[in-house]
Here is the input.
Amino acid sequence: MPSRNPRMAVVIGRLLAIAFLLCFGTGIYSHFLQDPLPWMSFPTRPVGLYQLSQGIHITAGILCFPLLFAKLYIVFPELFQTPPVRSLPHFLERASIALFVASSIVQIVIGLLNTYQWYALFPFPFRQTHYALSFVIIGSLAIHIAVKLDIIAKYWRKSPVASVDSTVSTTPLSEPVETPADLTVASAPGTLTSSHSRNAVIRAEGITGKLFAWIDKTPAADARTSRRGFLTIVTVASAAVVGLSAGQSFKLFDGVNVFGARKQGVGPGGLPVNRTAAAAKIEEVAMDPDWVLTVSNGSESKTFNRTQLLALQQYTVDLPISCVEGWSQMATWKGVRLGDLVDAVGARGGTAVKATSLEQNSSYAIMHMGPEYVRDDLTLVALELNGAPLDLDHGFPARMIAPGRPGVLQTKWLSSLEVLS
Amino acid sequence: MTAVRRWQIGLIVLGLALFVVGGITLLNDVNPKRYLGIAIWFAGALVIHDGIISFVVFGANIVMRKTGGRLRVPLPAILIVQGALVLAAIMTLIVVPAALKKSIGTANPTLLPLDYGLHLLVFYGVLAVVTAAALAGYALLRRRRSRARVAA
Here is the structure.
């Protein structure tokens, strides 16, 4: 059984586990950036930290497609265990695998669809469901590793502890596959054992077993060619899906970005947009000549119109816009330091800020910012983007830009800033 | 108790704890009216993958091996073609939704800005050329090898 064997399941399985854990870790980080617990504080350097973490999140997510398909292909014959259920532990094991497979598929599919903003396809909220499922998946992964720990340990290294697999591999497959008796014994999932018969092959009995045996000897070839061929296919497919879409997150791949959901340099001011002014329904209020930014600290309050903001000390910073949907692009911003504005209303020391957008009815219309960002020299109330006044879609008349935060927290169309005590 | 057994128990406890966290999160954050939709998607994922995709792949594999066997195509050549088909299929699964969503309409022009249908066709074309080149390269290599064998 060249490519459908425990060793291959372990090789692909651990790559998939790494991809899942990368997605989980970066996802949790992104979640708490948006919904921090009261005691949380976040690093602001490197400035591209969120670009990196969220870029890894969606790139590893896309990588899960070929890896998950490969893993499911390897263990496909396991689907046809006879009898389907042997005992309560066996039932639990199969049920947990069904949950694991279903939640993994749903998770990567809705994640992909989220990057296309195609929400109408699923009748449940994306963010909350994606978050809840991540725990189900990592929990299933832990249980799956526990149940298969014997096999994983045995086939972790290239030459397995047991010699049975190598016997199978080196058996000339042109011979009629009369698998040795102990190999055709159905494994007894649910009972943890180190017996060779359980771990040596993935299912050789039944119709599927016979069909797979036939596939593996048609044409006759050495098992190494099959295995290498399989690994090569998985590698090339992984490289292709990642390489041709990762340009949306990482400029390095921009030249070959033919399938990414975003493209560097495409958008007003050379920068993509997630929520337009029209979608936020703020066009009128944002263009109102009487617009002012209100900055308050307790009873002390000041207002600034755009001209007054432009008259303050201006700073230019290079910071990426990094969307929760994974796309990122570097941009040059010019504006007033947030620290200077809160100083102007008498704020002292580390202080948190509540920013309010002109936009109504959006969960991101009100944004909280911890002191680590408020007091960062790179955090600006931006008035210009890439050398031109902010485009309305990028947050005119003024928007927030801070290092290491997701785009949804870089509040556009600012209306007020309130220093929190 | 062996070390393996201790790890197993620890991992299962961890897994169950994460299930609890996931369950509580679902209860707190997702309206129960949506649970049926999630359940339908779970069932749909299993039906579409385990019931359809895996059988199509399995069937295609059998057909290819049968054809390959009849025409006496060596395994590496079959694997090259199968690899190309796998690559085309996975890319189709990922890119076709982008093309469809773009044709339905997006929230703004910077979302899905590329011509995904055209790019996918170009991808198929390049893939076909590379596959043909790989097959030719393999045929050449095989001929050279068999000649070397004859010479020896």
